[in-house]
Amino acid sequence: MRKIKYVLPFLMLLPFLGSCEKELMDYEGQDGLYFHAQYGAAWGDTTVWAHQIYTLVGFGNVDDEELVGQVKVAVAGSVKDYDRPFELELVQDSTTVESSEYEFLQDKYYIPAGQNHTYVKIKFKKSERMSSGTYQMQIALKPNKYFSLPFSKVGEIPGHWTDVQTEYSTNDDPNIHNFFVNDMLVRPAGWHDVQFASYSRKKHQLLLDIAFEKFGFVKADFNDNDKMLAGRAKAIATEAAKYLKAQYNLGREHWVIDEDGTMMYVAGVYWASGTRPEDMVDN
Fold first, then answer.
1. What does pTM read for this prediction?
2. Helix (H) or strand (E) holding 85
3. Distance of CA 146 to the CA centre of its chain
4. What is the mean pLDDT of each run of 10 residues along the chain (283 residues)?
């Protein structure tokens, strides 16, 4: 059985770490709640990562069938010496993930005694349709006798960077949180520009197929800098170049054309990066 992994967003591949967990947002009034997802560049200071407005659950660069996405729910106000329950709901009108593709991992939600945050965890299950599209799940906080929802817009939280990711959404309402789920390849951390040159999903898939056949490498290996060393990247590029040149030698109708219309390039082929088929006048 495959292990269930926590979703690892973007290049840093870290869970959602908060700023200093015992520090409370400067706020006066009834205790309130808000979603407070954080992530950023791996080289950055996690304590000042920006507030992020969505979570991407990407199966494209991992070999797992299930991933757990999580988002922090933070308190604006005081810490109490007792557990405080809160509720959330699935926003059906803004959800395109099917019921068979997710599972909430908690029946009840509460802010633990002595804490100013907790995490909502949802298990997502890869499906065939995710390879050709991105699907959304939206959850929303609900007010109760313990907590209000005092904010309508996140804005700039003091002490945090402002490098907010907006590729999938620009909705910065802190009372809702969107998960976006897909199984599409993205540039892995172990992509070597010298050997592989420019990135495309088509080239990535070809390299995956060749690396698995020749060396037993899997998707996760391309996302691991400790495994995808320069020597290994060169070995994969060498095998890919052999394949591309063999297709070239079979004739024009067999040439491998990349997504941008150029001859697919890796180190070791006959042509330069960016060469278009029509530039190959002698063939």
1. 0.79
2. strand 84-90
3. 33
4. 46 37 52 92 84 94 95 94 97 97 96 97 97 96 95 73 90 96 93 96 96 94 91 96 97 96 97 94 65
